[in-house]
Structure formats: C-alpha cells, structure tokens
Amino acid sequence: xxxxxxxxxxxxxxxxxxxxxxxxxxxxxxxxxxxxxxxxxxxxxxxxxxxxxxxxxxxxxxxxxxxxxxxxxxxxxxxxxxxxxxxxxxxxxxxxxxxxxxxxxxxxxxxxxxxxxxxxxxxxxxxxxxxxxxxxxxxxxxxxxxxxxxxxxxxxxxxxxxxxxxxxxxxxxxxxxxxxxxxxxxxxxxxxxxxxxxxxxxxxxxxxxxxxxxxxxxxxxxxxxxxxxxxxxxxxxxxxxxxxxxxxxxxxxxxxxxxxxxxxxxxxxxxxxxxxxxxxxxxxxxxxxxxxxxxxxxxxxxxxxxxxxxxxxxxxxxxxxxxxxxxxxxxxxxxxxxxxxxxxxxxxxxx
Length: 351
What we know:
- The protein is an all-beta fold.
- About 5% of the residues lie in helices and about 50% in strands.
- The chain contains one helix and 28 strands.
- The protein has one helix at about 1-10, and strands spanning about 25, 30-35, 40-45, 50-55, 60-65, 70-75, 85-90, 100, 105-110, 115-125, 125-135, 140-145, 160, 165-170, 175-180, 185, 195-200, 205-215, 215-225, 230-235, 255-260, 265-275, 280-285, 295-300, 305-315, 320-325, 330-335, 340-350.
- It has a four-stranded antiparallel β-sheet, with no helix packed on it. A four-stranded antiparallel β-sheet has the order 5-6-7-8, with no helix packed on it. The chain has a four-stranded antiparallel β-sheet with strand order 9-10-11-12, with no helix packed on it.
C-alpha cells in the first residue's frame, strides 16, 4: 500500500507523470477550467478572458458539477507531505467562495447528474476507498473499500451512471468495473482499456481497447449495456489512414483515448518512434467509427521522459483541450471539435 501511495503522490505532479486532469469544460461549454501552479484558471472559450480562483498553489484535476454551480479541484499544499499532499477544494460559482474540504479526499472526481453528489477516492488511516459525498448533507453517505484503485488520478477514469449511485471505473489493471454500492462487477478482463465514456442516460458504457500491434490493428471499440449486461463490438477499422496506413508508418503505441460526452467523437494519443531513441506524442480526432481522422497536435521529438498529452472534450463535442506535458512545463491548447486550432490557452512551469 505504501508503494501505491508514493506513486499516487508523484502522479499528482504533471511534471512527473502527466497522468492527472489539467483541464475541464463547464457544462454549457462556455468556460474551461485549467489547473496552473498558482491557482485554478477559469477561461472564457470565446474571449479568452481568465479568472483565477482558489488558493494560489498548484491546482489540478478540475471537475465541473453538471448544474454548473460547483467546481471541484485538488490543490497541493505549500507544506505538502507524502501522507497529505493537498486538499480537495469546492468553488461555488454562485457565491464566488472556495471551500477547502477535510484532508483525505483525492482525485479522481465524478459528479452525479443532479450536481449535489460526487464520488472520489478517500484515504484514512492509510486505507484507501471510494466514497460518495453529499453536498446537502455535508458528509460521506456511502463508501466502498473493495473496488480497485483507478488506473490514474485522472478524472476520466471514473464516471457516474445517471439515475443511480453506481459508477464505472477504469481500474489499475486497465479493466472496467461497474460499482453498485458494495458490489463490484467486472466488465472487462482484457487488461488493455485506454479510455471509456458512460452515456448521458446511464444505459451504456463505451470503451476503447488498444490494438495488440499498431502496425496492423490500431484499436477496437466496444459498448456494454449496463442493464442487460451484454456487450457488442462497434465498427472501427484495423488501420486509420492518417495514423497507421501501413506497417512502416504506424505509431509505436496507442496510449490514451477520450470519447466525447455524447459518444460521437473520439480523440486518441499515440507515440511515434524517432531517431536515436527519441519519440514524439501525437493527438488525433475522428468520428467514433474511425472516419475523418485529423492530426490535432504532435510534440517535437524528445529523448526526455515525462512527455505526455492529456485531452478533455466539451459537453457537446464542439471543442477540445489538449494539454502537452513537457517535463516541468505544460502547454494547454484549445481546439474546435474537428481539430481546428483556436489558441494556446495556458502555459505553465510547475515546481
């Protein structure tokens, strides 16, 4: 458990691993919350105007409530330790006040559709668990100690199932789990899931599996009916012309996938091998069936570790943010849903 805790603390710093959410869109898509080393920045999508909220410390893992009233995020403490690196904060968009939650609450975060409850990781006495927190009752109403750890603290690794208190989780073993109270149902056993999305109506979960050999099979897409517990494979080509048209031009690996909230668009990141041990990351967008793929961004070749790309969709799929992690530096760029660039939304150097 201690080893997992140390890895978790390291994962909170994007300069080390790049596996934590840095940006999230508001429910109406007009603003995007971007974590920075000096607070949480709320940026207008249209004008680019920025408002800084929360403590003036490194802030990560923003998550808007579906009603748009609250923004949850994690702020690292100036005097952070391995056991207490930071605290969950809730910013009230109506009052403009930011409240620090008691120690122990940690990302990833997921909101229920009413905006009054969220689920997250919580650690007490060295034991981690999933907890359900109710804003009206100002307390934890449910917990689950048996469900697995998430694959990363990124908010895309957990999602509420609408109309229930259940969640779908991408576990540390890269398998999907459906959590209902104290019951844990494993959805997949393949150990190769790189992204998932629960449908807005809570009826299904769609996920992307990485191909066993990207020279010939890039990825595959599946959908699981949460009520009937049946699964089907969705149409997706073995090769996507813009990414792996033939074995010689194929990426070395496919690393992550982000499905738009309505399940119509797909963004993926891949790694290309370069010369003399260098590699570069690239992000692409396309329809969920793999058609119309377009390059969004490709990082410069580098032999340095800690290079990554993180992605987040606007609720209606019309915009996308891509955060490029370059060691201690992050660059967050705003795009239209088809991959057309709009602007660099934020640049930051982390401690």
